[in-house]
Amino acid sequence: MDGGRLEQLTAGMAIPFGGDRLTHVSEALAAAFQPGDRLIVIQETGELLRVPAEAHDLAALAVERAAAAFAEMNRADDAAITAFFDEFAQRLQSDAAWAPIAAANDADVERARARGRSTTRLAASPQMRADMIAGLTEWRDAAPSRGRLVERIEHPGWSVEQVTAPLGVVGFVFEGRPNVFADAAGVLRGGNTVVFRIGSDALGTARAITEHALAPALAAAGLPPGACVLVESPEHAAGWALFSDQRLALAVARGSGPAVAQLGAVARQAGVPVSLHGTGGAWIVADETADVARFAQAVAASLDRKACNTLNVCCIVRAAAGRLAPKFLIALQAAGMRRGHGCKLHVAEEDVIPESWREARTKVRRADGDKDEPLVEVLPPRAGPRMGVGGDAGGQPEDRRGRGRGDRALQPAQPPLLGLADLGGSGRPPTLLRRHRGRVRGRRHDPLGGRPVCLQPPRARPFQLGARSPARPRRRALRRQRLYHPCKDASEGSGPA
Questions:
Q1: What is the pTM of this model?
Q2: Does the pLDDT value for residue 397 go beyond 50?
Q3: Using CA atoms, how far apart are residues 35 and 167, in angstroms rounded to an integer?
């Protein structure tokens, strides 16, 4: 077997993928590929990803440092980890430590604006700073999880215990949002170590946070410096190199859908467990039985910050619109005021919106600057069930428009989004709507990318008790697919409603 290394590519070279398919090297890829570079072939799609030698070496060195630190973390006590979060939070709260971070962020914002990039989530505002400090404080106060007894089973003369244990090195790739540092650093609470790769827009800010807050906090707490490592590369290829490193115990990606899907494919084919969040947005579905006070509280609490798991869509059945829609509008307006901005609505039907809202105007921050726009905009008609309203509590939505399904919806241009749906409009209501909820150390977690899920009970099939049928695994697989299939249009006559 030839053990040589790939030193060059030629245009038109055939590259096998997926076991029985071929893709071909483009002229641009052949010209760019240099000795020492790596080629990643996405087996699902045939995409060819070039990883420059420098990006690969940076990622590999970062994982090496984190792996060595993980061995040392086993000897660190929980008090030292608690001290780290406290020190990190205090340094972000210190104006002296924050000043160089703010200066680096200002420079990042200016560069991004010069390139016509959105800076809505890039700017390290006072609110973002406060949220980072609050997140670190939550981790500081969280109960230690290492060695926690999960279950104990007693047997005559012996017992079995299940206890929690650290995972290892966790790799994070996320878009240009500095506040994710505080979220990702939370893995240290469980005794893990972390390697970050941040979007190029925020790389300067990330370096400043590392230098003036993160690294000093690790040192003050007596934790190894490799417990949190930043991959200082602006190239996407550094993320590919990181996620293809089999020393990772878990890979976590947050950002735009296609980029996250690509990272997930890289990790999966390297055998690395991966958690992806590329669509964003959480959903609330409320029917006639919804408690008004609880509904209003849920909406308000889900709009406390602008992140990828902020409330994005809320569907309300038509029969409950009179009770719940006004509460949504109040919560949306209050959330915008609380964050020092405003809100914006997109509607398909104006009858659920008061005239005072329909006639009002608001300022919206777009990529090319602040714009004076109507507070309420009507979405163009579309085939199928109609939508109602959508809103953005930040008052600074990016240039995206949310769309949904149902009969009526309150719906925003950017998270959050509320919708009103006539789920029985087709005469065939869904079998069951299930709201997926989760909490990760006090943070909202949306396991299905913000899509509501319709659960349809599996059809009964004849089965002889005790029979060892090879169809059993297939039947279980079909059941899982049916249970977690995203909601389709309620007007469709087949499949999950």
A1: 0.65
A2: no
A3: 35
For residues 30 and 60, membership in a common domain is answered with no
Q: Contact at 8 Å (CB) between 342 and 395? A: yes
Number of domain units in the chain = 3
What gap in Å lies between CA 346 and CA 396, rounded to an integer? Answer: 14
The verdict on 66 and 100 lying in the same domain is yes
In the block, tokens 């973390």 appear at 73
| 62 domain residue, yes or no | yes
Do 207 and 349 lie in a common domain?
no
Q: What is the pLDDT of residue 179?
A: 83
Among 174, 195, 167, which residue's Cα sits nearest to residue 263?
174
Q: Is the pLDDT of residue 472 over 90?
A: no
Q: How confident is the model at residue 305 (pLDDT cuts 50, 70, 90)?
A: low
Which range of residues forms the domain containing residue 30?
A: 14-54
Contact assessment for residue 157 and residue 151, using Cβ atoms and an 8 Å cutoff: no
Spacing of C-alpha 436 from chain mean position: 15
**Buried-state track 83-107, b at ≥16 Cβ within 10 A, e below 16:** bbbbbbbbbbbeeebbeebbebbee
Radius of gyration of the chain, Cα coordinates, nearest whole angstrom: 25
